[in-house]
Structures are given as structure tokens and as C-alpha cells.
UniProtKB/TrEMBL annotation:
Record flagged with keyword Protease: yes
Residues annotated as domain MPN: 102-224
Family statement drawn from the similarity comment of this UniProt entry: Belongs to the UPF0758 family.
Assigned keywords, A-Z: Hydrolase, Metal-binding, Metalloprotease, Protease, Zinc
Domain of life per record: Bacteria
Native organism: Vibrio marisflavi CECT 7928
InterPro entries according to UniProt: MPN, RadC_JAB, RuvA_2-like, UPF0758, UPF0758_CS, UPF0758_N
Name this polypeptide is given: MPN domain-containing protein
Keyword set includes Disulfide bond: no
Amino acid sequence: MSLQRIPRESMPREKLLNQGAESLSDAELLAIFLRTGSRSMNVLELADYLIGQFGSLSALLCATETDFCQHKGLGQAKYVQVLAILEMAKRYLSESLQRGDVLTSPQHTKQYLSVLLRHQPRETFHVLFLDNQHRVISDEVLFQGTLDSAAIYPREVVKRALEKNAAAVIFAHNHPSGIAEPSESDKRITRRLVEALSLVEIRVLDHFVVGDPDVVSFAERGLI
């Protein structure tokens, strides 16, 4: 059954247009993406079923191609669409950060880093390099590790920051476990990075630990 055959008062498209996208449930958003249901379920029922199968909308969107395509109502074409949607979201948030001072939009910065790192299977250490107006010069992955840790070398971070002519940096890394609480090793390496960068007069503004769904800020915790 297509969206056109669902009663008008319950059509997700109509609800989105009349009440805004934020008014839609996860299943309603997914129904708009799916467009059609199956022989046994209308599109809203199928959307609700799929979210139940994956456990959450987030898990569905970040599933591997194999896991995604084995569910009815989904396939490679839909998988490609999901990848495109996620990449557009990353680029939108990245461009928004680059247009302004990251310190004026800490929530935006958190959202960007969460989208970027939340579902990485390995621990990934990411750096935002900023100019003296706290605008983003570039953002890069500097280190990747195993499921448990990443080897982070302060000398390499300093070298890259100098190459970028950065006045300040923001660090972020993910915890594949999903638990965003900073570990003692996270705190130790952050102190080492702050000390190393201070020698070349580059400020460390924050270090975000990205979990699922939480993101913890060292600056908000008073750890920097």
C-alpha cells in the first residue's frame, strides 16, 4: 500500500507539511523514506516493523549492507539512498560549522561529531583545526584503533596543527561500546595533548567523547 492510500489524517507527508518534520515519529519518518509497503503491511506498519527488527531507527540507518538488505521492504537501492542521506547530513553540519565560530554553536558541534563518529566500529580520534576566530580550517581523522583504544601521539598532533596554522583545536573520539563516559586514559592523553600544544601556543578548546546516544564534553565537565 502506498502513502496515497493511507487515510489523509494519518499521512506522514501531510503531517510533516502541516506540523513540521520534528512532529513525526521515527516510524513516520521512515515511512516517507520507504514510500510503499508490502502485500501484508501498509507503509507505516512496515516502517514500525523494521524499526522493531533493528532495535531503533539509528541502528537501521547505520546497518551494514548485508544486514540492511536482508529485510523485506529494503534492498540495495534503499541502502544507497541511506548512505547518501547520511553523507548529506554530515556535509550540511560540516559546512555550517565552517561558516561560523564553533564556540557559538556547541550543540551544533556535538551533533556533527555525533553523526560523524557515533557508529564507527573502531575507536577513531578526530581533530577540528580552528583559526584565531575559532572558525574551522579543516577536520581530520588522525588516528584509528581497535575496538578498545587508539594510539594517539602528541607529537603528530602538534605537527599537523602547525601545518594547518591552527590557533586552536577541538578533539573528539568515539567509544564503540556506546558509553560516553571519559576513561582515565582519555583524561591522561588529553592532559598530554594540552601540555604539548601549549608549548607552541595552540589552545585545546574541548575534547568530546562520543557514545550512543550521549556526547560528553571535557570543557563542560571542567576537565580542560
